[in-house]
Amino acid sequence: MPAREHGTPEWRRKMKPDPKVEDISMKTDDATAISLPFFLPAISPWHIDVCCSLMLDDSSLDHLGTCRPFDIDALAWAIQNGLSHSCIERYLKQQVPSTLTEELCSPVLRGSADSTFPILFFAVEKNDPEMIRMLIQAGADPMATTQHPKIPLLAYCVINAEYGIIDSNDCLSALLAMGASPYSLPVDLWCDYIKTPTKIGPKLSEADMREYGWCTREVRAALCNNFNLLQRYHCSVASLLPSKTPRQKQVAKAFNLMPLFEIPHHIIGQRLAAKLVQEWLTSHALHHVNTPLVLMFTGPSGHGKTELAKQMGELLSLPFLKVDCTGLKFESDLFGPRAPYAGHLGGSQLNNFLS
């Protein structure tokens, strides 16, 4: 009897069953075998073509950006050693965009035995979603995989939580929102996201073995130990959302609105409202309107109105103010007490925020 698969996509259900099936947890190709624990190599200054000694501060990377050509190893060194986002952003902006994309998709430490890790793996290792967004906007590939052994970026994001004892939910949602496909992970791990995945996976066809050959028994056990409910939900949501068009990506990148793609991952349900908000913000940016954009959310309490506004502010790095109107009697109370009443000199929350 073929193994039962819950929530299998339509294109998989239409495939003819392959009589030759193998248990992925029992047999793998030695070329794709992965041994755990799985750590990235430490980038040292001697890996970098420099004209002077490097210090662990922003000035070193700024100096490299002005006097040396772009070096992917230098960028990995900066991420590993915690240099500031503003410094790394300056370093990226100093490069030619056409060549930067190619460099960001090439492995770090080229020409060495450790030349297998794309730059995004180092951002995931630091559990830094803002760095992930910055690198992908600059041209890094969210579908990146290591070469020898082969492991997808999403899988490393999940497994990395075990070694770093960290919460990688934000990194996973950022990768999915920026273009990573949830199908790079075995579908049975997340299709029924309420159900905890099992360490013994279903038997796979020969075609699926080629796609998921990296998922050995040891790797699958690590995925199951760290693949929490929220991460499985993110993968399920990403599989239902339509792919972003090149035009949408171009406009979002031009106006720094790509973080808005993460709204469906932060708000449970309300996909229509999230879609309309993204469309209104994009339209407002395209028309170069100087007046502020005012959106009014209506609906019963507890349905995500305040949370949607809060997440928009956090994703776009905008200040957020919540004014509780339950204790106000008149519209004028929004602007504080009038003179000469007590407290009129202090203004109100709304007045102080707008000023």
Structure description:
With 355 residues, the chain is an all-alpha fold. The protein contains 17 helices and 2 strands. It has helices at residues 10-13, 58-67, 72-80, 85-93, 97-104, 119-125, 129-138, 153-164, 169-177, 206-211, 217-226, 229-240, 246-254, 263-266, 271-286, 305-315, 349-354, and strands at 21-22, 204-205. The model is unreliable at 1-32 (pLDDT under 50).
What is the overall pLDDT average? 81
Total DSSP E strands: 2
C-alpha Rg (nearest Å) = 24 Å
Order of helices and strands: HEHHHHHHHHEHHHHHHHH
Rough shape? globular
Identify the strand order in the major beta sheet.
1-2
Largest sheet: 2 strands, antiparallel
Strand content is under 5%
Topology:
Blueprint: H1 10-13, E1 21-22, H2 58-67, H3 72-80, H4 85-93, H5 97-104, H6 119-125, H7 129-138, H8 153-164, H9 169-177, E2 204-205, H10 206-211, H11 217-226, H12 229-240, H13 246-254, H14 263-266, H15 271-286, H16 305-315, H17 349-354
Antiparallel strand pairs: 1-2
Helix pairs in contact: 2-4, 3-6, 6-7, 6-8, 7-9, 8-11, 9-12
